[in-house]
Design goal:
9% helix, Phage tail proteins - horseshoe like beta roll fold, 4 domains, three-stranded mixed beta sheet, 5 helices
Length: 474
């Protein structure tokens, strides 16, 4: 049998210097930690703090020199023996995580800000305490000054010095930033001193506080910006913000059942990972399935199938004083939910940024407003989208492969046995890629490439019908 050999290629650049004597490379991207990380192991330190870093790597045949990481240099750690220096790097989204808002916006009530000079610089005596949505997106098409998550994200990213391709940013299309409180709930907090209603403040004892980071502010939207459209085509989930290997920042819909559409690699082939199979797997002729040359591409793996997290999701929104908007979505008990009829989601995405109770018109209904001025998200949409994530059999795990495919969080991959069924790993289905560790190591004088993606998906309970309970109008 002919053996197809491949060549591992890689290039590392720190600042203007090409690093040729690297010992190991690792790049990590994840939905859980949206800021990408990388480690470069070298005999001697290269570059300086915050210099640009790029890692290209792959195999020939394969993807060749493909961007695996783009970001900034951070600290260096030194080992005595064997001699090595590990250079830590962070992705471009770190700029967003590190940018702290310091600006004071306009007061929707018309009050003017004041300034005070002290030895540490200018202190703004503001009446708001940060930037409102109409400060961030003054040219929004919404007549009342609200803006979509995408438009808000574009504005915040520009504040942090990142000019992002808008085609990589998706959102629900709902508008945020206004309401009964003039949109004060959606404030991007600054470190300015906020004066009271009478503009009285002890100037001699005023001081500037730390503001809110740009990433923390955007993640508040990411936790509630959701869609629930049973289709077809089905479109369910939350819009997550994270970083991809090219260094670009994306907002992508992730959640619910992964579906049947498998993502493709750069060459157009579907991203499928196949275990070696066992004697129990037969083809249609009753013979042991003979995988084609190169089909099994999993080196090691571990997967779990577990009970659903919950069968009920209670989302709580805006508090109006006498009543608080809320919505409970649930699925009936089944063989996977034997413990309790009231098994609630322990991490339901409640927020006072949720303006409405349900979608349909009526008391607390989003569609009660004229379509031209509608704004806000509702508890019902969020509860039903979240229910798709928790009321299902939970399939999770990770694998290690030598395949050099460009694996990106938010992709849908297929993990299977050779016959397309579940075998030793207990899975033969599509799964959400939650993250990936790309690694190159020098072993016996030659580079060895491995990748370790992590997965989440499932399962049987996602096919159950969704019921809901909403309170009657007071």
């Amino acid at each position: 049998m002919a053996m197809l050999r491949r060549e591992i290629v890689a290039q590392v650049k720190i600042g203007e210097y090409i690093v040729k004597d690297w010992l190991a490379l690792r790049a990590s991207h994840s939905l859980a930690d949206p800021v990408a990380r990388a480690q470069i192991v070298v005999p001697y330190p290269y570059g300086n703090y915050d210099e640009p870093v790029e890692i290209w790597a792959g195999s020939i045949p394969g993807n060749g020199m493909t961007t695996r990481f783009r970001g900034r240099r951070r600290k260096a750690s030194f080992d005595l023996y064997p001699r090595a220096c590990t250079i830590e790097c962070v992705g471009e989204l770190s700029k967003v995580a590190e940018y702290i808002n310091w600006e004071e916006g306009r007061d929707p009530r018309g009050r003017e800000n004041q300034t005070y000079e002290d030895p540490n610089g200018t202190i703004v005596l503001g009446t708001v305490g940060g930037l409102l949505v109409f400060d961030l997106v003054p040219d929004t098409p919404h007549p009342a000054g609200a803006a979509t998550f995408k438009d808000i994200a574009m504005a915040v990213l520009r504040k942090a010095g990142i000019y992002q391709n808008p085609e990589l940013l998706d959102c629900s299309g709902r508008y945020y930033g206004i309401g009964t409180d003039n949109g004060m709930r959606f404030l991007w907090h600054s470190g300015t001193v906020v004066v009271g209603p009478t503009n009285q403040v002890d100037i001699e004892h005023a001081f500037r506080r730390a503001g809110e980071s740009a990433l923390a502010y955007l993640q508040k939207y990411s936790q509630i910006d959701a869609v629930y459209d049973p289709g077809p085509p089905k479109r369910v989930g939350f819009f997550r913000i994270f970083e991809i290997p090219s260094g670009e920042i994306v907002i992508k819909l992730v959640g619910g059942w992964p579906g049947g559409t498998i993502d493709t690699d750069l060459d157009g082939r579907h991203i499928v990972f196949t275990e070696g199979g066992s004697a129990e797997i037969k083809n249609e002729l009753g013979e042991q399935f003979p995988p084609a040359n190169g089909t099994p591409n999993i080196l090691s793996a571990n997967f779990q199938r577990d009970y659903p997290v919950a069968n009920r999701v209670l989302v709580v929104g805006l508090d109006l004083g006498a009543v608080q908007f809320h919505y409970e979505a649930s699925v009936p008990l089944g063989p996977l939910l034997p413990l309790s009829a009231y098994r609630y989601d322990p991490s339901a995405p409640s927020s006072d940024w949720i303006d409405w109770q349900q979608v349909a018109a009526g008391w607390g209904g989003y569609e009660s407003l004229d379509p031209d001025v509608r704004y806000g998200i509702d508890c019902e949409t969020i509860a039903k989208a979240r229910l798709e994530e928790v009321a299902r059999e939970i399939v999770s795990g990770n694998l290690t492969t030598a395949d050099d495919a460009l694996l990106i969080p938010g992709q849908v991959h297929l993990v299977q046995a050779p016959a397309g069924l579940a075998d030793r790993l207990g899975t033969g289905e599509t799964l959400w890629c939650q993250g990936n560790d790309f690694e190159l190591q020098i072993q016996n004088g030659a580079p060895v490439l491995t990748q370790t993606p992590t997965y989440l998906g499932g399962g049987l309970a996602s096919a159950l019908p969704t019921s809901a309970e909403a309170p009657a109008a007071p």
